[in-house]
Amino acid sequence: MRGPNARRAYRLAPRKSPRVGWAPHGHPLLPLPMPRALITAGTIYTGDPPRPGATAMVVDRGRITWTGPATEVPRPVPRERIDLGDDAVVIPGLVDSHQHLLDSQLLTGFADLRGVRSPEEAAERLRTHAASQPEGWITGWGYDAAETDGGRRPDGRLLDTVSADRPVIVMESSFHQGAGNSAALAAIGFGRDTPQSFGGEMERDRRGEPTGILWERAFSVLAWAGRKAELERLGPSSTERTLEACRTLLAQGITHVGEALASRDDIERLQNESLPLGFTLMPASGNGAFATPWDALDGPRSGQGTPHMGIGHLKLFSDGGERCALSIPLSRSLRQTTAIVRSAISDRDPTSLRVLTTAKATVTPSGFQSGTLHYAPGKMADIMSAALQRGFTVAVHALGNLGVRSALDAYQEARSRTGIDVAGCRIEHAMFIDDADLERAADLGLRFSMQPGHAVAYVRTLRITKIERFMDPVAMRKVIDAGIPVAISSDGPTAPGSALDNMRGAWDRIAVDGKPIRPDLAITKTEALRAATAGGAEACGVAEVKGSLTNGKQADFAVLNGDPFDPATRVRQTWVAGAKAWEQPAPA
Ligand SMILES: [Zn+2]
Fold it and tell me: Out of 52, 201, 272, 414, which residue is the most buried by the measure of CB atoms under 10 Å away?
């Protein structure tokens, strides 16, 4: 089950600056930190713990040594002074504990399919894109089947009209579903005789021929091939793409990210770059995003590296994206189905019915089940146990309530098999979770990394499936009340909106349709700021040096032009380790 490179040794990046230890200085994009400086602003939110009335901080070689009111600066007052302005609001650097920078950096080479209203419109954009890139794979990303007319998605036959000989692939915005033309399926060896395997689906027509539409584990084989082709096309220029992606994160006030899928090749490459913000790389398989990461167990382990470039939790997948695994008791599911059918008829819009049928629902004695689990019962505990024994911590993607339940079962099973505590391991998303499982997760000591931006952005799916009435989408209120430590993350680029939008969504729950989505599940501003900073740093294992503006921690902060929860507020500057890493360009 191990890859051919299992014995390859791993070298971790040397410390960049022995004096500061973990700071990223020496990076050509960052000026050296000032020796000792006083920074003042209109308001400084120190995060956790709060320091009301703070308007000043002293930073010494990248670290914070004092925060408080500007009138109480300790002597000797630093000679170097930076006044950010009376209207400036400083918050701790945002820590996005679940990001896909490695995917984001490839998107500029893909056709942008966001907002397409039909598969034909997607094909048109792919043709335009193909003309600008005359060789190799033609890849498009970003459609959302809940937004196309009738919920239709591109298939292989349509993509064959884009090109008959070049591989053409499309990926849905979530990276969990997509399609390939005949050349793309041939390139990955998928055809009529490909057996059905657990955790994914290659759709077939009535004659048994592949339609080109792929889901979950089957899709990730195709997506991985497309990603590899793009990386090869980029060659050494991928470094520039990585830096560009880093700048878009800095521009949102993000100073540290958890890269939620990093193969051993990715880890090796990123460790050799010097990047202007911090990274926690979450190891995954080199054989595809959803492949079981046996090969990653021979790579660097959780906790290795530095807080600027370190190794995080091993990433596993419990269930799908759009096909997240849901279990709904029969009485509730009947009410839900009736409501969907009724509104489909009254709105004369079949989209909701299409969503219902693509969910692959089955009726079991315990109720209505839909979606895709990535592991058969007991199988996730195998890889989890092996990972724990090798010294890894684990993070499991689990979106639906059944996905979460399966992940918790696996954690419990792995703990009893190995005797190793799973406290500090993570659940990613938990978009839907049953009340009883909140208690189980709290007892296991798990952390959650959640995305208010998903509830806000995918509101159409939540509303047309009526699921917002029957379940609790992104129930941050309940998670915090259950005593589970929580981080706000973006899962970027899967949802639009900036890091500040994402944080605000946890508090106001205003969806993209302008109406609130289950405002009873909102959390307070203080809780949201904490979850987006200290909560993220804890999830990434870097809370000792990041996540708040506290004495001894790295001076990572964002300078805003107003209240962090005002939709009009913008990021002016982002500082990493006491040096300005990004500044809003001056108006031309
Ligand atoms: Zn993700």
Answer: 414
Residues forming beta bridges with residue 364, ordered by sequence position: 367
Q: With a cut of 50, say whether residue 20 has pLDDT above it.
A: no
Cα of 46 to ligand 1 centre, how many Å? Answer: 29
**578: amino acid identity, one letter:** G
What residues contact residue 203 under an 8 Å CB cut-off, 6+ apart? 155, 210, 211, 212, 213, 214, 215
Three-state SS for 130-170 is HHHCCCCCEEEEEECHHHCHHHCCCCHHHHHCCCCCCCEEE
Half-sphere exposure of 49 (CA within 13 A, CB side): 4
Cα of 98 from ligand 1 centre, angstroms: 6
Q: What is the pLDDT of residue 19?
A: 34
d(CA 257, CA 43): 25
Strands (E) located in 344-411: 362-364, 367-370, 394-398
* pLDDT above 60: residue 286: yes
Task: Specify whether the CB–CB gap between 395 and 447 falls below 8 A.
Answer: no
pLDDT surpassing 70 at residue 118: yes
Ligand 1 centroid distance, CA of 336 (Å): 28
How many other C-beta atoms lie within 10 A of the C-beta of residue 131?
Answer: 9
Mean pLDDT, rounded, of the chain? 90
| pLDDT score, position 12 | 41
CA of 23 to the centre of ligand 1 (A): 27
Q: What is the pLDDT of residues 545-574, one digit of tens each?
A: 999 999 999 999 999 999 999 999 999 999
State the distance from the centre of ligand 1 to the C-alpha of 500, rounded, in angstroms: 18
438 vs 446: CA distance, rounded Å: 10
User: What is the rounded average pLDDT of the residues 25-45?
Assistant: 75
Measuring CA to CA, which residue among 228, 202, 203 is closest to residue 217? 202
Kindly calculate the radius of gyration of the chain based on its CA atoms and give it in whole angstroms: 24
Phi, psi dihedral angles at 216 (to 5 degrees): 50, -125
Q: Rounded to whole angstroms, how far apart are CA atoms 277 and 275?
A: 6
Ligand 1 geometric centre to CA of 100 (Å): 6
DSSP string for residues in 482-520: TT--EEE---BTSS-S-HHHHHHHHHH-B-TTSSBS-GG
How far does residue 491's CA lie from ligand 1's centre (Å)?
5
Predicted local distance difference test score (pLDDT) of residue 359: 63
429 CA → ligand 1 middle, Å: 8
Shortest CA distance to 432 belongs to which of 518, 339, 344?
A: 518
Cα separation values, 61 from 21, 47, 250, 347, 579, Å: 11, 21, 20, 62, 9
Distance of alpha carbon 479 from alpha carbon 485, whole angstroms: 8
State the Cα–Cα distance between residues 131 and 109, nearest whole angstrom. Answer: 13
Average pLDDT over residues 64-74: 96
CA gap 475, 519 in Å, rounded: 10
* Peptide bond before residue 496 is cis, with ω within 30 degrees of 0: no
Determine the average pLDDT of the residues in 298-321: 96
| The residue type at 356 | L
Contact 233, 112 (CB under 8 A): no
Mean pLDDT for 500-509 is 97
Q: Identify the band that residue 33 occupies on the pLDDT scale cut at 50, 70 and 90.
A: low
Other beta carbons less than 10 A from residue 365's beta carbon: 5
